[in-house]
Design brief:
46% of the residues lie in helices and 13% in strands. The protein is of the alpha/beta class. The model has no long low-confidence stretch (mean pLDDT 88).
């Protein structure tokens, strides 16, 4: 065969050896990709998988990861349609938009954004409110309720303030009735917090909070046939165990919210 092709036998054997090495390395990478996907709860796309492999010490590019995932039918979860939750048809006055889409901030606790979403369960609807720090994109406070009364939004904010005593962030939300209510405004007054609200009908003014719920609805399993108690446990696990501490965030340079906060405070303490 070498004479027919005009090839040197040593070159042929080197080619065979190289092919075997590449096959072995592909098998290792496939196993690592599957492990990364399992650890990410099958939420990572090609970019996050590539970064996770680099964090594990592999020198690899996005194209190779894409090829291996495609060849081995390794896929992430697909986005689901979201449900509109904001009721802005109420008599309460709205605050001005003080945030003005400045979603990048230089330090923690400068600005927190909030939103509410619905979770359908076997026992009826549950409602989830979160507060997100724009610096680290961490969920700093949250609350689940079986009622849309304003109290559960206050509970979520109080849980965030309890975690960050002394914090005085700008608090931003849409114009939903819970955020415009007398009860919520009294809480802001007692805590000496400034309020900001999106312009009417403009979801982009609160894009970070709305984006979080898009991510959550994509990455958790369907709650439709789960009992309410199990859904509460699922949300706790997703936010506190996975999202804040393990999920790589593209806006953070593929770091976790916890890593970004730790880096900030370590540099602050060092200076």
């Amino acid at each position: 065969m070498c004479r027919t092709l005009g090839a040197v036998p040593q070159g042929y054997y080197a080619w065979v050896k190289k092919g075997a090495i590449e096959d072995d390395s592909d098998r290792v990478l496939i196993a690592e990709i599957q492990d990364v996907m399992k650890e990410s709860r099958f939420t990572y796309g090609i970019r996050r998988v590539t970064q996770a492999l680099k964090d594990r010490g592999f020198h690899i590019n996005k194209k190779r990861v894409e090829r291996l995932m495609k060849e081995n039918n390794i896929r992430c979860k697909k986005a689901k349609k979201s449900k509109k939750t904001t009721n802005s048809n109420h008599k309460y006055p709205a605050s001005e938009d003080r945030l003005k889409r400045r979603f990048t901030v230089a330090e923690p606790n400068r600005a927190w954004v909030s939103d509410i979403t619905y979770l359908k369960t076997r026992d009826g609807w549950l409602y989830l409110c979160v507060w997100i720090d724009l610096f680290s994109r961490a969920v700093v406070g949250w609350s689940i309720s079986n009622s849309l009364a304003s109290g559960f939004v206050c509970d979520a904010l109080m849980s965030a303030l309890a975690r960050h005593p002394g914090a005085r962030p700008l608090v931003h939300s849409d114009r939903g009735i819970q955020y415009a209510s007398v009860e919520f405004r009294r809480l802001l007054w007692r805590q000496k917090l400034r309020q900001s609200m999106s312009k009417k009908g403009d979801c982009f003014d609160n894009a970070v909070a709305e984006s979080f719920f898009g991510i959550l609805k994509t990455e958790i399993e369907s709650t439709r046939n789960m009992p309410a108690a199990a859904v509460r446990e699922l949300i706790f696990d997703y936010i506190e165990v996975f999202y804040n501490r393990k999920r790589l965030h593209s806006k953070l340079g593929y770091k976790t919210p916890a890593e970004v906060e730790e880096e900030y405070w370590s540099l602050t303490d060092a200076s």
